[in-house]
Each structure stands twice: as C-alpha cells, then as structure tokens.
Amino acid sequence: GENVEQHPSTLSVQEGDSAVIKCTYSDSASNYFPWYKQELGKGPQLIIDIRSNVGEKKDQRIAVTLNKTAKHFSLHITETQPEDSAVYFCAASQSGNTPLVFGKGTRLSVIA
Amino acid sequence: EPEVTQTPSHQVTQMGQEVILRCVPISNHLYFYWYRQILGQKVEFLVSFYNNEISEKSEIFDDQFSVERPDGSNFTLKIRSTKLEDSAMYFCASSGTSGGAGELFFGEGSRLTVL
After folding, report:
1. pLDDT per residue over A15-66, tens digit each?
2. What radius of gyration, in Å, describes the C-alpha atoms of chain B?
3. How far apart are CA A12 and CA A97, in angstroms?
4. A103 vs B101: CB contact, 8 Å cut-off?
5. Do A89 and B43 touch (CB under 8 A)?
6. What residues contact residue B70 under an 8 Å CB cut-off, 6+ apart?
7. Cβ–Cβ gap B103/A97 under 8 Å
8. What's the burial of A10, exposed, middle or buried (CB within 10 Å: 0-12/13-18/19+)?
9. Chain A 23-42, CB below 8 Å of chain B: which residues?
10. Most buried among A55, B16, B43, B64, by the most CB within 10 A?
11. How far is it, in rounded angstroms, from Cα B68 to Cα B54?
12. Cβ pair B45:A105 closer than 8 A
C-alpha cells in the first residue's frame, strides 16, 4: 500500500521568511495530493491540493509542487506570519474510493 | 460554514469498557470516514462508509471496532473492550465525493483516554 514520508518533523522560521515542507510517496498510482493544516485543538483543514496532471499550484502565499517521476511533492509558504504556526500534513491517494494516507506531520513555528 | 461536529471532545474510560464516539457529518455529504491519531504520530485511516455500508477498512479496524449510521445525521464509531493502545484522537471526516478525489472535511476530534 501507499506510504508517505514527510520532512522535517519540526520547522522554525522567522516571520517573513519562507517555509518548505517535503513529502515523498511510494505508490506511483497515487494522483491526488492534499495538504492539511491542523491548529491546536482542531481537526485538519485542507489548505491546498494538487492532482497529478499538473506540476505546480499556487494560492496566494501557498504553493505546492509535484514531481511525479521522483514521487515527491512539496509545500511552500512565503512571507510567513505567526498565524501560519500549526502542524501541516501531506497526504496521498488515488482518485476514486481509496482513502488518504497521511504523512507524520510537520510542526511549523513562525517566530515574530 | 457547514462543519463536521464530534462528541464527546474528550472521554476517559477504563480498559475493557465500550466507547461510542459520535459524529454529525456535513448534511449533503455522502462519504464518511474515521481516522485516528496517536499522540505524536501520523493520522491513520480506520474506515470509510458509503451508502450505508463499509466501503473500505484498514487492518487497524478489526472486530473490536464497528461503525453505524443509525439515522440520517449521525455516524458513530463503537470500540468494544477498549485497550490501553486505543488511546488516541479520533477524527471523523466527510466528503461530498469519494475521499480520494475531493476534499475531506474533518471534525475537531474526540480524544479517548483508556486507563
């Protein structure tokens, strides 16, 4: 089955700097790659996703890149703000009825 | 904004007791899920539910676990004879489309502590 690895497990950045979180996946049949943000005491919330027919997607300060050949995808947050501090999870699945497989999460701390 | 709600937010139980975790998915969603997250570990898939039956389950979801949609709004996870290792945060999620193709909306979780 699918296995998703995520790095780093913790990341501290200065406010205004960029943050990059990387994930790899094992199943070449996976074609849907969402990123979730989990704030303290809350459930994960989708922030951006990408499908395998595109290599990059951007939404304001957040972007995701996908390299299907290497089977890795990354989350990029630019101009980080304190409210970006949270745990971020990557996930992968095949479109259809297969469940999301999550990475272990990255705790991002943005220092003001 | 529609949301998934879960109760209780925290439950403490003795080992061997039965626990029922409740979820109210978003009203027009068709696919329902339970995930769990042991402290400090990844979010793990337990079970998916569609059209009043289990569509997929993980190896974690053994005979100790069951799910039910007793009425048109609730979706429950029952854990029989709880063990210490069942202590975790349990998340319910729902989707308007199959979860592999569209956004999953998660509840805030139910923290289960087994003593």
Report:
1. 999 999 999 999 999 999 999 999 988 889 999 999 888 899 999 999 999 9
2. 13
3. 36
4. no
5. yes
6. B76
7. no
8. exposed
9. 32, 34, 36, 41-42
10. B43
11. 9
12. no
- The DSSP line for chain B is ----EEE-SEEEE-TT--EEEEEE--TT--EEEEEEE-TTS-EEEEEEEETTEEEEE-TT--TTEEEE--SSS-EEEEE-S--GGG-EEEEEEEESS-TTTSPPEE---EEEEE-
Instruction: Provide the sign of the torsion angle of the four alpha carbons A58, A62, A67, A71, taken in this order.
Output: negative
Give the tokens for residue A37. 């943000």
Q: Which two tokens stand for residue B106?
A: 């998660």
Strand pairing partners for A50?
A33
B103 and chain A in contact, CB less than 8 A: yes
